[in-house]
Amino acid sequence: MSSLYRKFRPTSFESVIGQEHVTKTLVNQIETGRIGHAYLFTGSRGVGKTTCARIFARAINCLHPVDGSPCGECEVCKALSSPNMDILEIDAASNNGVDDAREIREKVNYPPVNGKYKIYIIDEVHMLTGSAFNALLKTLEEPPSHAVFILATTEAHKLPATILSRCMRFDFRLVSVEEIAALISKIYDAEGKKYDLDAVRYIASAAEGSVRDALSIADTCLSFSQGKLTYDEALNALGGVDRGKIRKLFLCIAASDAGGCFNAIDELATSGKSMGLIAKELAYYARDLMLLRSAPKLLVETEEHLALMKQDLGVVSDDFLTTVITLFSSLDSELRYSISPRIVLETACIRACKLAVTDISALEERIARLERGFVPAKSQGESKEPVAPPPAVDLKMSAPMAWGKVISYMRMNESLRLQTLVGNHTDFEIKNGEFIVWCGDDYMDFCSESTIDAINRAFTTYNIGYKLRIDKRTAVDKDKELERLKAMVGKDVPVNIVK
Ligand SMILES: [Zn+2]
């Protein structure tokens, strides 16, 4: 646990952030003296469940509570501020058996030593076994008048209904970026640490609503930076991805620039970022743009970032944003189990590029760009070569990069049918100097002479130095298949079929 977290752990309800709906009711109960016997505190990790449980446990024993919080001065408060027999914290993750629950049942009958109440705080209560729950239930059904149980859990849905019905339930919410940022600023001020507001906001948003995580990150940044904590230092300390680079990749997708995507991914990979992190950040960027359009108040950003985001929002539609969010946020498991996560991410980008094109508003934007002066190769007439000279690329480019080039070529020069066919296809590899397009149901489409010619033209245009081979992943009968192809195309087709 971070030292900042320990040092600045709230000791009064007033200093608990983001849970006013909970603390207000608890304070009310203390002031009116209507204390229940069983409470359930549920919510994500690090949002203040145990902290509130501890404050509540002390407050109900305090002789002179101040605004519903323990005074910290009276004899009971003093006695309860160090380890004592009246406030017992049990971690159900490691004490989850029926014997542990029975022990609670026996000991709860002994009256408190210092104050009025004896409090059991049971953390991670959902980890109790079935029989332990039954034993606990017996206690909850007939508790001694001095006993108070506070059950804390991140997963309330795992508790039996019989337990739930006995408890007063409090749902803790995730803490907003603004509230966390304000807390970190306050703590850094108290510690005499200088910081950029940007850096603090970045830490707050990285914590995803957990105060504990936020303070642990703030602690790391404290030891990471010597002088004033900058945005870049916070980014480095967290191993985060540079926003500018993610934005670049996003814009390449929006412009359906496959080549640009490969370069942007390469740049990110070179700086040591995992593909999973890149995918996540992409989804988050699209989500932030969506927020900017529909609920800007929820967005905590600097003016500088906002200006750039507004600019980006101008070239994408809601449909496109939804697609990017769905595509990249669901990529996680695929990336985790893939032997080459980079290809998974690259192909996802290509897929998104394709969607950017079918997206009407993006299409309009592309048309507008074409009208502004970009003339595609074919309309030049005299020359068969594209006007823009093919970029000087290494003959031995990676398979995804080569395929990206083929896709761009189809977009500029070929029919919609070929654009879709090639844009949808993700199964390919390079082996022994051959570029192999592996096919399934789309095999026949790829084997047509016009398709093979078109791909070969793309290979020539972009100096892709591999021999094209189109293969079926599993073929029924090689000879039969070749005969069928020959009948269809009218001549021998340069195709290898593997069994
Ligand atoms: Zn007190």
Would you mind describing this structure in some detail?
The chain is 53% helix and 9% strand. The chain is an alpha/beta fold and 499 residues long. It has 4 domains: 3-171, Rossmann fold (3-Layer(aba) Sandwich); 177-238, Helicase, Ruva Protein, domain 3 (Orthogonal Bundle), CATH 1.10.8; 241-373, Zinc Finger, Delta Prime, domain 3; 391-499, no CATH class. It has a 5-stranded parallel sheet, covered by helices on one side. A 3-stranded mixed sheet has the order 6-7-8. α5 runs parallel beside α6 and α20 crosses α23. The protein is elongated, with a radius of gyration of 31 Å. Mean pLDDT is 85; it is low at 375-394. Zinc ion binds at residues 62-64, 70-71, 73-74, 76-77.
